[in-house]
Amino acid sequence: xxxxxxxxxxxxxxxxxxxxxxxxxxxxxxxxxxxxxxxxxxxxxxxxxxxxxxxxxxxxxxxxxxxxxxxxxxxxxxxxxxxxxxxxxxxxxxxxxxxxxxxxxxxxxxxxxxxxxxxxxxxxxxxxxxxxxxxxxxxxxxxxxxxxxxxxxxxxxxxxxxxxxxxxxxxxxxxxxxxxxxxxxxxxxxxxxxxxxxxxxxxxxxxxxxxxxxxxxxxxxxxxxxxxxxxxxxxxxxxxxxxxxxxxxxxxxxxxxxxxxxxxxxxxxxxxxxxxxxxxxxxxxxxxxx
Amino acid sequence: xxxxxxxxxxxxxxxxxxxxxxxxxxxxxxxxxxxxxxxxxxxxxxxxxxxxxxxxxxxxxxxxxxxxxxxxxxxxxxxxxxxxxxxxxxxxxxxxxxxxxxxxxxxxxxxxxxxxxxxxxxxxxxxxxxxxxxxxxxxxxxxxxxxxxxxxxxxxxxxxxxxxxxxxxxxxxxxxxxxxxxxxxxxxxxxxxxxxxxxxxxxxxxxxxxxxxxxxxxxxxxxxxxxxxxxxxxxxxxxxxxxxxxxxxxxxxxxxxxxxxxxxxxxxxxxxxxxxxxxxxxxxxxxxxxxxxxxxxxxxxxxxxxxxxxxxxxxxxxxx
Lengths: 290, 320
Prior knowledge:
The complex is a heterodimer of chains A (290) and B (320).
Chain A: H1 4-35, H2 42-60, H3 63-84, H4 94-116, E1 130-133, E2 136-139, H5 140-162, H6 164-174, H7 176-181, H8 186-208, H9 218-233, H10 238-258, H11 262-277
Antiparallel strand pairs in A: 1-2
Chain B: H1 7-24, H2 27-50, H3 57-75, H4 79-101, H5 106-127, H6 129-132, E1 138-139, H7 155-178, H8 180-190, H9 192-198, H10 202-228, E2 230-231, H11 242-251, H12 258-276, H13 280-293, H14 298-311
Antiparallel strand pairs in B: 1-2
Helix pairs in contact in B: 1-7, 2-7, 2-10, 2-11, 2-12, 3-4, 3-5, 3-10, 4-10, 7-8, 8-9, 8-10, 11-12, 11-14
């Protein structure tokens, strides 16, 4: 039905898309797992990462400088936002943080429009070489993106399982009170997690920039997909996020090969099916009520 | 808080406020306020009574608007029947969607609704282009016939109709608050375990509330369609998903008349500020953050206790 070359390039495309989505969704997922907040402003750091990749990349001539700048700026922004805004609402209901962060996202889009205007900006990929994968020409850049996602997953895994801070974060996901009782500064753990999440979102935005046009609404457009991934995977689960990011990436990519408008719809249908069977997502924990 | 005024007195006051304002303020502004009020009432009910925050209200608005538009564009010409179709469409839509959504926790619920809004937007813009005409929208301004008593095609008479509908909507919600069902809604927000223990089903209470709230939203969509004379996918755009929530918070969550006050304040600010600066999102976003951090009771939530004291001093100790 579909010839092999189209299928292979579709799979690679889906993997690279899933990798970007994973970088964004992991932030949302970590924030929910640890702080019980739904941090929609990750999408703002994503947009800023992409715009930094555009501006700094253009100024210095090196795309990778732009991505690095985007990651750093996103991390700084998330640090400021966490200190000044989220610190005041940790104790409240998760939906509360959702509204606040949505306000931040909308306000941030206003800032982006103020600085960069509404015109979409193209970002040039750092390498245009095509690699040969099973007899199909595939852009090397997409493979690099996939590599980044694998490195980030490995890094996060090592951080959470091999360092003392990571172990504290994992323990705090189980029970914040116990960790606090052991004399660990939970507030600092929250800040560290939030900054990591923000920086990863910025990295995702920077890496995504050459694959799409950078425009102010990119955060809102991506939000729906990132949401679906977090919901399908289950809030607070890193493994679930990775798996569902890869699945959604493939569904979008292969779906668009079969029937173009389906790319927008298929993940939603999938999400409905998953939620019908498991209301907390694939790997979501049932312990937390409402 | 629930029985601040005798129910008719409060509604009469609100209607008087709307009528009084419509003498002073321009007509398009008032029409916008009236429709927006109905739009927000549904959202307010879900947040304040059911404890569900929905980022997908534009989806239900679009369902109502497109149901009306399909009727007026392809089949008939009477705006009243069109509105009826819009309400019917919203009812059927929420009956179909409801069972899947109300099983979810409130944070999942908010996200799933947002996803629904995106899907409805794409459906109307891209997938169903053959019948919705995509970004061009459906224009049926000239196809609407005038109705006998109140001519809905004339904005001035539409406003009268809008105020009457608003009065009915308020009377209905006020009535709901007084019934056992209204108390159950509040209970399911506050403590679902206890409610279940008493013997009520959380699922059916939420499902009914979901259907009521979203049918109201669809009614607002239908009225938008008739008032503007056209519909386009822009109406259900997910980027406007925050509007009803902002207005709810601005007016005061869970208060009956918060939506009116919020809608007047919000529409007014939008008019004033969009004249001053073009960058509307910037303001809205930070207003939302500000409300969440500082004044989470809203305008009406702050005013109501003061008004109660002025209007009926004796009930001071009995309210709440």
